Amino acid sequence: MHYDNLIIGAGLSGLAAGIRLAHFGKKTCIVESHSVPGGLNSYYRRSKRSFNVGLHAFTNYVPAGTRGTALAKLLRQLRLRHEDLGLVEQTFSRIAFPSCELRFSNEFELLRSQVEEKFPGEIDNFSRLDQRIQDFDETALEQEIFSAHGEVGKFISDPLLLNLLFCPILFYGSASENDMPFHTFALLWKALYRAGFAYPEGGMKAVLDLLTGKFTESGGELRLGARVERIDVRDGLAREAVLSSGDRITADRIFSSAGYVETMRLCGAGESNCAEVGKISVAEYIACLDCQSRDLKIEDTIIFFSCNDDFAYRRPDCLADFASGVIAMPDNYRHREPWPEGMVRVVSLANYDKWFELLNADNPRLAEPAHRRAYEEAKNNCAREMIAVAGKIVGDFSQHIVFSDLFTPLTLKRYTGHLQGTLYGSPGKKLNGATPFANLYIVGTDQGFLGIVGAMLSGISIANLHGLS
After folding, report:
1. Tens digit of pLDDT for each residue in 87-109?
2. 273 pLDDT exceeds 70?
3. Domain residue ranges in the chain
4. I want to staple 180 with a disulfide (CB 3.0 to 4.6 A). Which of 160, 174, 308, 467 is the partner?
5. What is the 3-state secondary structure (H, E, C) of the chain?
6. How much is the pTM?
7. Pick the CATH number of 2-57+201-276+427-466 from 2.50.20.10, 1.10.260.40, 3.30.420.10, 3.50.50.60
């Protein structure tokens, strides 16, 4: 079968690219290895409960009718209405360090006033930094790459304020340890601080149903359970994708959301790219409660925390590092109806290699019984540590847990295909989507636009640049 465009992966970037191409009459097929779309932002069911994978917040939120924003561009390009997404806003979120806390919400003035109150000597510098970011075009597909810490440090001199401002941005988008490119920092500053957080009332399933419906209604073909085994390349072009079923698909252009290193390996050119594999992965614990979070006096939507003022964002030397992380209470958004159960989600930085060594496999089903037992015991210990550290910040909720689940970097590897279970892919982003092969392009995490809106804009931008000619 031959197509104008083949897209590998039905995550948000792949679906957005597919919608954009199909709108212009391009014969487009999306292949997805799993039985449901979404990739890192998907959903699953356990014990008759639905869980969203990856979704803490729909960032870049602005109210309907707000122009000149990332969300407005996305809606226009995909021909969607604001109300189609069913978004409800956050209450407020918090950055919590031992000696200082900052609150922020969907109104930037709250963060600005918090900085003025707690760092009065830095408020003018903070305002200058914000203006620098407002004037910066973080979506340019060709630009110089330079350090965010180096650039932000030109404005903010207090190391505590620097760490406080970096903490949420690193946790929600950095593929590098302790730093990131300034264009990524600017993108996330606007997404988290300048715009804000919301939550789709129907969860990720509703968003994915909307996108897949839009794609197929526009003439696109979606094939689930279709894993790409390899991409055959000849004469500098990606000629053919071979599926694990044996089916072969040819296309004029191929767009891959599998990750840059992972895509190069599909092309048989991966060994030289090992150094580009990222280091950042996480473990996440999800607890369902017998009451609402607010009933336990937990008012925040999301808390980004560090147990030390000297915050470090790096891969730990052990299974997981509980000294910093993210605590999310998705039932605390301004939902139209209360959730039947409260929920607390806790994220900690984790080490893929240590979890792999423990299981001696990347899938519990393939491991020996003794390794499976050790893996489960480690997960239980990890869960207890995460409950304890979150309890110190929001109050003890352990007696209210009615169901829980925990995933590790091995889970991320299994469901995203990212080597080392990397959360944000390779540190080396391909902003213009280009690869060594003239008709093969990267969308999604390794293109460089992050978050739910960023992922969709990644697909849109690269489709517009390379797929509509």
Report:
1. 999 999 999 999 999 999 999 99
2. no
3. 2-57+201-276+427-466, 91-195, 281-416
4. 174
5. CEEEEEEECCEHHHHHHHHHHHHCCCCEEEEECCCCCEHHHCEEEECCEEEECCCCCECCCCCCCCCCCHHHHHHHHHCCCHHHHCEEECCCEEEEECCEEEEECCCHHHHHHHHHHHCHHHHHHHHHHHHHHHCCCCCCCCCCCCEHHHHHCCCCCCHHHHHHHHHHHHHCCCCCCCCCEHHHHHHHHHHHHHHCCEEECCHHHHHHHHHHHHHHHCCCEEEECCCEEEEEEECCEEEEEEECCCCEEEEEEEEECCCHHHHHHHCCCCHHHHHHCCCCEEEEEEEEECCCHHHHCCCCCEEEEECCCCCCCCCCCCCEEEEEEEEECHHHCCCCCCCCCEEEEEEEEECHHHHHHHHCCCCHHHCCHHHHHHHHHHHHHHHHHHHHHHHHHHCCCHHHEEEEEEECHHHHHHHHCCHHHCCCCCCCCCCCCECCCCCEEECCCCCCCCHHHHHHHHHHHHHHHHCCC
6. 0.96
7. 3.50.50.60
